[in-house]
Structures are given as C-alpha cells and as structure tokens.
Amino acid sequence: MRDLLGSGRPVAASVATAEPRPVFSGRYQQLWMFLLLGWLISYADRTVTGPVIAWMIENKAGFIGDAANPATLGGLIGSMFFTGYMLTQYAGGRLGDRYGHREMLVLSLVWAGVMTFVSGVVTGLVAFVVARVLTGLGEGVFYSNDRTLVIGHTPPERRTMGLGVVISGLSIGLTVGVVATPYLIDWGGSLGMGGRAWSMPLYVLGIVSLLVAAATWAFFRARGDRPLRLGPPLVRLLAYSLPSAVAITGLFLLTERLGWPDWLTAVGSGVLAAAMIAVVVREIVRTGRSGVLLTKNMWLLYIAFIAVMWNLWFFSFWSVQIVKESTHSSLIAAALTAAFNAGAGIIGFPLGGWLADRQVRRGKGRKSLAIACAVAHTVLAVAFGLSLLAGRPSLWLLGLILFVSGLFFNALQPIVHSMLGDQVPDEQRGSAFGVFNLVAEIGAVASPVVSGVMRDATGSWAPGVFTAAGIMAVSVVLYALVRERVPGGAAA
Description:
CATH architecture: Up-down Bundle
Number of domains: 1
Subcellular location: Cell membrane
Distance between the termini: 36 Å
Organism: Streptomyces jeddahensis
Strand content: under 5%
Number of strands: 0
Pfam family, one: MFS_1
Membrane topology: Multi-pass membrane protein
Protein name: Hexuronate transporter
Largest sheet: none
CATH topology: Growth Hormone, Chain: A
Radius of gyration: 21 Å
CATH class: Mainly Alpha
C-alpha cells in the first residue's frame, strides 16, 4: 500500500514536498449542487443491481433465474460489488489528500460510467460479477473526497446542512434506480431485447454517468486554481484497484470451481475486507497518524456506522423484493412502494443537517440528535418486521413505515459525518473519511448476502429485518459513548 498510495514517510514530510493542491474557488452552493448530482448518478448506478436481479428472479431469466438459491446468489453479487467499493475507501481519501479531491471525484464518475455500461454488455454470471466489482472499486473513491470538499469549502455554521443537501442526491439516486429500472427493462423488452432486457437500465445509466462526469470536470476546471491533472491519480488508482479486483474475482471463481456455498464466499469477502483494514491501520500507525485517525472517538464512530451501511443496503438492495413477495404485487407496484424509503432522504438528509447546525449555533453538540434518529429508526424497523410477520400487509402500510423510518435514518447520516469531520484537522479529512467508510462498508458487504441466506433458509424476510434493527440498536450505545467536538466550543 505504501508504494501504491505514496511514500511511507510521516504525513508532515509528505505534505511539505507535495505539489500545491487545487482549491475550489467558486460559491459553495454551486459546489453542493454538482456534488449532489454526482451522488445521484453514482447511487442510481449501484442501486440498479437489486431491481435487475428481482426481474431475473421473477422472469427466471439471465444467470440468476435458474439458480437453486436465487436470493442468496443475488445477495452475493451485491456483496461482491461492495467488497470492491469498500477496498478503495481509504485509498480514495489518501489519494485525494495527495493529488486533489476534485480529480478523484471526476475519475470516480468516469470509471463508474464506463463500468456500468460494460455491466450491461457482458454475458454470463462471472463476467457480470467482474464488471460490478470493478464498478465498485471506482465508485469507492467518491465518498471521502466529496465529504472533504463540502467541509473544506462550506462555512462552519452551514457545514452539516451542506453535507445533508449534497448527500440527498443519494436518496434521489436510490429512488431513480428503484423506480426507473422496471420501466427501462420494459422499454428494452419493447425494443426486442427479450431475456436481455435487463441490460437496458445499465446502458442508460452508464451513458448518463459519463455525461455527469463531463459536466463536473468542466465545472471544476472553470473554478479551480489550476487545471485538473487526472493522469497521476489515475495511474495510482489503477495500480491499487487491479490487484484488488483480481483478489475479489479470484475468490468468486474459487467458489465456482470448488462448489462452495454462497454464504462461505461471503465469509471470504469479509476476511479480505478485514485484511485490508489491518493493512490500513498498520500504514496509519507507521506514518504517525494514529493519534488523529485511530482515537477512541474515531473507532466508536467508525464501528457505529456499520449499522447505517447494513440497514441502507438491506433496504436498498432487497426492499423491492420484500414488498413484492409480502404483498403479492407487481414489480412496478413494489418498486414504487419501496421508493418511499429512498425518497425520504430528499427531506431527511437536509433536515438532519439543518437541525444539527441549529444545535451548533446554540453552542450545543449533535450527539443527542444522532442518538434520537438511531432509536427512532430501530423502533420503526421492528414495526416493519412485525407487519411482515402479520401476513400480507397493505402496500400503503409498508410505504408509510418505509417513509417515516427513512426520514430518521437519512437525517442521521450528515449528523454523524459532521461529527467525524470535526474530530480531525483539515489535511487529514480525506484519510479520515476513507477509514470511516472502509470500516462501515463491512455492513454493506455482509447485509445483502446474509439477508438473502436468511430468506432462503426461513422463507421469510422478517428475520433479516429484525437483524437490521438489532444492529442499529447497538449503534445507539456506541454513539452515546462518543466525546463530541463542537465547533467553537468544548468537547461534549
């Protein structure tokens, strides 16, 4: 990792010899809107996999339809994607600190667009897995650089609001990915694509991603203090990503050759992720940054956010299938109902940011808000699981629970992001958010496949829902233990 991401010298020495980093010089509200657009398309790209797999299961088509355990296999594909996404979290933040956060954002969007399009072109299960792993590796560098830019170029009194407004693109993208996919598949069918109609959403989103990348590049180029230099960070990212892709794909191929059960492959992904976390921790200790990035408060925030990623990708990946099975509705009706959860973030993300900034302006901490949001989501998730156990709930009931729980769940995220950003100095934020999402993505890697295994084993989605709620309940305790740093005030 030292050779791929830069020298192993202490960070102060590295910064002293590095070229000046580009600084965004435009109005911060304009920056918010372009970053929101990046979140929108990147989340639509990754969300499309769930509805596509649901269509394959329903129509017994593609490489999922004839599988013995389609839910488990579908969840495994999601876990492979997030293994790739996870492994570039720290690398993306570290490279952003070194080469510029604007550069990494543009590279992420271009990479994701190309690989999403390729995901629609490929045929066969293994080729599709490889394409989705590569997509995840490219998209993984977006998060830490986006969070760093928002915090670095937004006034402190509006910082959490900015984090919330920008990440609301996540919810819009989730909504687009969930709702638009069935219609795009139907469009592909009307064009004579037959069993390959599932490719159409991937083609469309891949092209749109590249258009967004071009617009973002033009925006940053016009407002930066120097032109964007994409070559050096691209070379570093390729050198880091290709071995990771080989390792993840090799794990999947080994599974195919030896006939391992899918859940065992998921365990292998977890071991790979744990090894990467160990390597990153070792690199941080060696470069003398453990006193900033590996404090007790940072570890509490890192680990607590696993619950957010678990719940996010349980409901995002499987909500369409859950609603469809429990209400015996059509794929389109299920997608529209599931979209209530994703769409709630359009309100929840900025609302959470506004409330947190209001607390800061009063000289108070944001931790109490984070705890309240986590508790509310836990209670509502339990209510959702109980409604499934009751048998054939109405679409309106499920939609209402998904929407209200989504408000609290999405409000939680910018609050925690802002708490984390205030724990570290400016020059370490990219690395901090990289470690944060590297650890938290354990939840995203495990959630789809573990939930799929539970569904195939029990015949019900309720155990998966209760598991998600229980994990969120644990995070409440962890947030309560955090000693928060309030801007302009004492620790809280």
